[in-house]
Specification:
- By secondary structure, the protein is α/β, with parallel strands linked by helices.
- The chain has one domain: 2,3-Dihydroxybiphenyl 1,2-Dioxygenase, domain 1, CATH 3.10.180.
- Helices cover 19% and strands 50% of the residues.
- The protein has 2 helices and 8 strands, in the order βαββββαβββ.
- It has helices spanning 15-26, 69-78, and strands at 8-12, 29-33, 37-42, 45-51, 58-65, 82-91, 94-100, 105-112.
- The strands form 2 sheets. It has a 4-stranded mixed beta sheet with strand order 1-4-3-2, with helices on one face.
- Strand 7 (94-100) and strand 8 form a beta hairpin.
- Helix 1 (15-26) packs antiparallel against helix 2.
- The radius of gyration is 14 Å and the shape is globular.
Length: 113
Amino acid sequence: MIVRETFFAIEVKDMPRAAAFYVAAFGASVLFTSPGWTSLRIAGVRLGLAWNPDHAPCRVGLHFAVDDLREACAQIEAAGGQLVAASVEVAPGVIVADVADTEDNTFSLTQRA
């Protein structure tokens, strides 16, 4: 077997809103979009958005390493997301904050000192 790419997919209720969030919050590039699936590229990694009208809020395995955690949290909120848990130092020089996108998918932002 040859693996050509690895990507991550998350469910969303509102495809246009979710795609707009990731473009505004992270500068995502839209590779493909349709009512049921959108492919984005963020920092060289592909993120798939899968439409599910019954999507329930959940934690997803996304982690974004950022240079400025405070600025990143502000961008999340400006794009329509929310801060779920205030930043905390989880290891020496490693600060993490939990945030959610417009679809109530919770993920982490990490800053290393």
